[in-house]
Design brief:
Layout lengths: L2 H10 L8 H34 L2 E6 L4 H17 L3 E6 L2 H12 L12 E7 L4 H14 L3 E5 H44 L1 H9 L4 H40 L12 H33 L1
């Protein structure tokens, strides 16, 4: 088949009026997939960061109504912690910082008003083994019965599991969107094949093979998919940047971990190209299968 004949055949198989509905379908599918992918990658990164923060970390709280006894108990507990081989680091939280943290609820004069403000000690362990946590907790309790040990994994564990679930859900959404895109492209290719059945029969009589006809549909689908991928990718990039800026403005320690790394951005950049390749492959498979049944 000559080059001129191939161009005429490609025009003959074009959609009437050049509506390019497939471009809009691909744009919408890719836009949603990129948003789900960005959310999933950022959530997975936040979950990993939270797991590292929780691993082997404790907070020791000394609750005493009288400030002198509280400070003395905190000093004893701190000395015991720093002697334990299972403790990598023990750092007291300054009372000024505690007062600042409690200010939204207790005001600026909580301690002067007689409200008990506990002493806090941040502890990093050499291991997150439950036996290590139990030994450190027992040593702290012996040093001061007023001390209470809180493992970060106990109260942040549900948050980590929620983030993991959200990341897996985003991955499932991406797979569903890819499957839906494949189905839509295959349906569109079959519908186009049926609409141009007469033209295809003429092309066959001119000597074209099934694979040559399939390439004509591939080129048309690739063009529509490329346009849709460009539009959807640009729209998704704008939405992702807007959301990232808003999350950064919150200055939240937990939400601050919802960010994308260089590898994550690379994966998102490759996704539009993957969509185009998927559309072309789906169109080719659908056309070849349909033509075997037609002819």
């Amino acid at each position: 088949m000559t080059r001129g004949r191939g161009g005429a055949e490609a025009r003959a198989l074009d959609d009437v009026g050049g509506a390019h509905v497939m471009s809009w379908v691909i744009a919408i599918m890719l836009f949603l997939t990129l948003l789900a992918g960005a959310a999933g990658l950022a959530t997975a990164r936040a979950a990993g960061s939270l797991d590292r923060q929780m691993a082997g970390r404790l907070t020791v709280q000394i609750v005493e109504g009288e400030a002198g006894r509280r400070d003395a108990a905190a000093a004893r507990v701190l000395a015991v912690l720093r002697r334990l081989p299972d403790v990598a680091r023990a750092t007291p939280v300054p009372q000024a910082e505690l007062a600042r943290m409690l200010q939204p609820w207790l005001g600026t004069d909580a301690e002067a008003a007689g409200l008990p403000v506990p002493a806090l000690i941040d502890v990093d362990l050499t291991s997150d083994d439950s036996g290590v946590i139990a030994r450190v907790g027992a040593a702290v309790t012996r040093a001061s019965p007023a001390a209470r040990v809180d493992a970060h994994a106990t109260w942040l564990g549900p948050v980590g599991r929620l983030l993991d679930t959200a990341a897996w859900l985003a991955g499932a959404i991406i797979l569903l969107m890819l499957g839906a895109t494949t189905a839509v492209v295959m349906l569109a290719a079959r519908a186009g094949l049926e609409a141009h059945r007469g033209t295809i029969e003429v092309i066959h009589m001119l000597g074209a093979t099934d694979r040559q006809v399939a390439r004509l549909f591939q080129r048309r689908i690739a063009l529509d998919a490329g346009i849709g991928a460009g539009v959807g990718g640009i729209a998704a990039a704008g939405a992702i940047l807007l959301i990232a800026r808003q999350v950064g403005a919150l200055e939240s320690e937990l939400l601050g971990n919802l960010r994308l790394g260089a590898g994550d951005m690379g994966m998102l950049v490759l996704l539009p190209f993957a969509f185009v390749l998927l559309a072309v492959a789906a169109a080719r498979a659908a056309v070849l299968a349909q033509m075997r049944r037609m002819l």
